[in-house]
From TrEMBL:
This is CBS domain-containing protein. It comes from the Bacteria. Residues 8-68, 76-132 form the CBS domain. Keywords: CBS domain. It holds the Pfam family CBS. The keyword Ion transport does not apply. CDD domains: CBS_pair_HRP1_like.
Length: 141
């Protein structure tokens, strides 16, 4: 059985909720990623959300806000989604499809150990699985 841990990329990095969005953008650039899980201030084992490069552009910059003054925690909304490292690929796909998300943090023993992105799905799954995932995540309905 292929698990979330088998298809994730390792080295996911947290950003504390109190850090500013300009710092988040720098971290994304430095780590060559497009999303960061946001941790409760001082608690790297408690995820309060996830922010993406698109969130920074749409919810901050395009709205005329200053990314050096807006915090990562201010951009988080909704319930953070994640998957256990031992979950099988079908559970990964279901979680991502049902919540229409493109990136999914992977947790083991309550600790962040990696992230699953679209690229990881494309590398590790069949064309049919990726096509089915994309249809459900990107459809307008």
């Amino acid at each position: 059985m292929t698990t979330a841990k088998d298809i994730m990329h390792t080295g996911a990095h947290w950003i504390p909720a109190h850090e500013t969005l300009d710092r988040a953008a720098q971290m994304m650039r430095d780590h060559k990623v497009g999303a960061l899980p946001v941790s409760a201030n001082g608690e790297q084992d408690r995820m309060v959300g996830i922010i993406t490069d698109r969130d920074i552009v749409i919810k901050c910059v395009a709205s005329g806000r200053d990314p050096s003054k807006v915090t990562a925690g201010e951009l988080c909304d909704g319930t953070p989604r994640w998957i256990d490292a031992t979950a099988d690929v079908d559970a990964v796909l279901e979680e991502m499809q049902s919540h229409r998300i493109r990136r999914l943090p992977v947790v083991e023993n309550k600790k962040l150990i990696g992230m699953i992105s679209e690229a990881d799905l494309a590398l590790h799954l069949s064309d049919e699985q990726v096509a089915g995932w994309a249809e459900k995540v990107y459809s307008r309905s």
